[in-house]
Specification:
Helices cover about 40% and strands about 10% of the residues. By secondary structure, the protein is of the alpha/beta class. α6 packs antiparallel against α7 and α11 packs across α12. The termini are far apart. It holds the Pfam family DJ-1_PfpI.
Length: about 325
């Protein structure tokens, strides 16, 4: 009797683009090698392919030969879909019908269903995410939400545990979720020791919101562009809606409507986003103390900066700086 049988799906006729090997290797590394000194027996790993092996992978990439086909999902306690082919995400190419049917059978039989990164699209096609909160890599969450409106997509988290269905963001977030599964199955001590052997933290603070790039604001050069550019260079000032409206030669009500139409945010929301982005830039590029960064970004105090950072990004400014340290210690350039 093992700690559980984990069936890992290799999609696209067992031809795996090199980029997708990362999530696949995470699942194999966590659940494959026996760790008898931590838990004996360990997991039983099944690598299950969706087609017959043979030929070169896409772009000359490697081809994996798996000992199991999709029938290997039968009887597994956990089924993991590490990723799906890029064309199924970006071009809407259908996933193999036999894969979707196998996922549904496994779920109906009581298996715990798990996706890493774009594997969420396979679970969504199978209807296993309907009405559930789920996530994927932040670059694909908008597409996941648009294509499957019954899924409650959360783009800000590293992973979502919804009991018998779990989803993660991309790349290293897949490792976070796999360690979480070990923690659920075998306890915190085993998960912590395994994380130490893999030289990774057993639990990372925050979510993937801290890794999402702030989008470049939409420009409106006829009216809002110049005033928004001006505001970004004067974020240390106590700016108000009236100040910005006056500079744009608009009434506050008109300015509110125009900014909402152009950016999708209210003036106060837009200012907060810009100030947080300014703080992120200073944390990544300078060794200024948190108090000074709060002043330069217009958030006033270190406590106020921490409050908004944790609320928006899920981590403290100090934790963010440790995750994205300055390349070289320096002070901020002169000026604002």
């Amino acid at each position: 009797m093992s700690a559980g049988t984990v069936a890992v799906v290799v999609a696209e006729d067992i031809q795996v683009p090199s980029w997708d090997l990362y999530e696949l290797s995470i699942a194999c590394t966590v659940f494959g090698p026996a760790q008898a000194d931590l838990a004996d027996p360990w997991y039983e790993l099944r690598l299950c392919g969706t087609g017959a092996p043979g030929g070169a992978g896409p772009g000359g990439g490697p081809v994996l030969r798996t000992p199991y086909g999709l029938d290997g999902l039968d009887g597994a306690g956990t089924v993991i879909v590490p990723s799906v082919p890029d064309a199924c995400v970006t071009e809407g190419r259908p996933l193999p019908g036999e894969l979707i049917a196998a996922l549904r059978r496994a779920h109906d039989a009581g298996a715990r269903m798990v996706s890493l990164c774009t594997g969420a699209f396979a679970l969504a096609v199978a209807g296993l995410l309907d009405g559930r909160r789920a996530t994927a890599h932040w670059m694909h969450t908008a597409e996941l939400a648009a294509r499957y409106p019954r899924v409650r997509v959360d783009p800000a988290v590293l992973y979502v545990d919804d009991g018998d269905v779990l989803t993660s963001a991309g790349l290293t977030a897949g490792l976070d979720l796999c360690l979480h599964l070990v923690r659920r199955d075998l306890g915190a001590h085993v998960a912590n020791q395994l994380a130490r052997r893999m030289v990774v933290p057993a639990h990372r603070p925050g979510g993937q919101a801290q890794f999402i790039e702030a989008p470049v604001p939409v420009r409106d050069d006829e009216g809002l562009g110049p005033v928004l550019d001006w505001a970004r260079t004067h974020l240390d000032r106590p700016l108000t809606v009236a100040d910005l409206a006056r500079r744009a030669a608009m009434s506050p009500r008109t300015f509110y409507r125009r900014l909402r139409a152009v950016t999708g945010a209210t003036p106060l929301q837009w200012l907060l986003e810009q100030r947080l982005q300014r703080a992120r830039t200073l944390l990544e590029s300078t060794d200024l103390p948190i108090e000074r960064i709060a002043e330069r970004s217009g958030l006033g105090t270190a406590n106020n900066l921490r409050h908004h950072f944790v609320r928006q990004l899920g981590v403290s400014p100090g934790a963010y700086r440790r995750a994205f340290p300055p390349a070289l210690p320096s002070t901020a350039p002169a000026g604002r």
